[in-house]
Amino acid sequence: MSALPEWTYSDRAGFGEDFDALAEEVFAQPYRGLWRTGAGERDGFGQESGLVAVTNSDLRRLMVHPALTNVPADVLSGMLVPAGGRHEDSGYYKCFAHSVFTRQPPEHASSKKLFARQLTAGALSRHHELAASLLRDGLRSLAGRGECDLRTDFAEPAVARFWGEVLGLSYAEAVRVSELAVGLQAANDFRLSADGLVAVNQAGESFLAEFNALLRRGIRRGGVDFLDDLVADYESMEADQRPSSLEAHFGVSLIDGLHTLPAEIVSTVYTLCMNPSSRAAVRADETLVADAYHEAIRLHPGIVSTQRYAMTDFEFDGVEVPKGTLIMMLWLFGNRDPDVYDSPGEFRLGRGHRSDTTFGGGAYICPGRNIVKLFCQLALKECTCSGVEITFCSEPEWSTASAIHEPMRAPVVIEVS
After folding, report:
1. Closest CA to 241 of 362, 120, 121, 115
2. For FRET with 177, which of 252, 322, 351, 383 sits at 20 to 30 Å CA-CA?
């Protein structure tokens, strides 16, 4: 691995501000193989060296490679333990030890099925009208107010109200756990400060304790369809396959649904609005909403990268990969690979999307992809209704130096006639 070129692009101060230019720069090089991380870098989790997959081809082959799995919780939290501490004492570890995203084979399959079953397209269909009405009402409540923020004033309240309704929480309770989820996601910052590290671990402790209590309350009371179905699925599992805590397993695995989903709604709406001819086409033909969603999320997926972990030694295109190696999977770059997409930085309705790497693939494909699709397509539909005008006052402020790609602020003016 030491002979591979070193991936240093994530070290740039403005990493994340303009992926159009950065992807063009990366793919302008003739090299198309794996890269390596530098020794001891945060995105290498302190390993002597990790690997980085950038091309669509490498990502698609590695996402289904039998030697790769989720990063174990103790490894994932390794760089998030305060000096002199143990990972068992880390609030981040305590949370993610319960997550479907750190489960290893063979437990991963049953664990994921339990979490994802309530988020299949069929299961979510019963919440379609709720999500649509929340987005519609939220949009209209902002009409005529002048400048507002599409994330904090529209997407985040709609998502919090949705989970509140679905999980039997008050709006204030849903907002609280969403705020804690945001605090936990700060762990994706490549330049996390010492104070930031303390805050992440505190958020982990609080999220686990508070959300567990709220879910446990809802389960005990009964009468909440989503939770009742979740409990029924849990109880139907073989005893040795059940997660130790249903509440912790579901709650921690839902973190992206609380935090990343609102950001993805904003990114999707922004991308279409920045392409007026496509927006006009979608407004004229509602059946184009699905095309618009797939193209928007290709260009602006919520996740830049996640990690995979080598369970065994293996060889990949002549590279010997030792057991325990971490591989940074740069999903966003796979969506901008010019070997797969003609003029990849352009928004084009009708572009094929079978090669997208937005949600990974294989056994570890993102289980939350259907809730993202539901909300983003509904948001696009509502934002292109006749009489609805959304004008962005400026370019969104994108997150930087992070494994998450999100608009931190998106100032808009909304008019509805």
Report:
1. 115
2. 383
Which residue in the block uniquely carries the two structure tokens 């988020």?
119
Residues 6+ apart with CB under 8 A from 356: 294, 297, 298, 334, 335
- Where are the domains positioned within the chain? 9-416
Other C-beta atoms lying within 10 Å of the C-beta of residue 291:
18
Which secondary structure element, helix H or strand E, spans residue 319, and what is its range?
strand 319-321
Region of 278 please: left (phi>0), alpha (psi -120 to 50) or beta. alpha
Confirm if 360 and 306 have CB atoms less than 8 A apart. yes
Alpha carbon distance 151, 135 (integer Å): 12
Question: Cα(411)–Cα(137) distance, rounded to whole angstroms?
Answer: 19
218 pLDDT exceeds 70?
A: yes
Q: How far apart are CA 95 and CA 249, in angstroms?
A: 9
Q: What are phi and psi of 30, to 5 degrees?
A: -70, -20
| Structure confidence at residue 42 (pLDDT) | 43
Please tell me whether residue 408 adopts helix, strand or coil conformation: strand
Which class for 249: exposed (0-12), middle (13-18), buried (19 or more C-beta within 10 A)?
buried
- 275-316 residue pLDDT tens: 999 999 999 999 999 999 999 999 999 999 999 999 999 999
Contact in structure between 148 and 157 (CB atoms under 8 Å): no
Buried residues in 260-274 as b, exposed as e (16+ CB within 10 A): bbbbbbbbbbbbbbe
pLDDT at 78: 82
- DSSP label of 367: T
- What kind of fold does domain 9-416 have according to CATH? Cytochrome p450 (1.10.630)
Q: Tell how strand 326-329 and strand 51-53 pair up.
A: parallel
What are the residues facing 148 on neighbouring strands? 412
- Is the pLDDT reported for residue 46 higher than 60? no
- Of 392, 399, 397, the residue nearest 273 (C-alpha): 392
Pick from 73-82, 111-120, 141-150, 318-327: least confident? 73-82
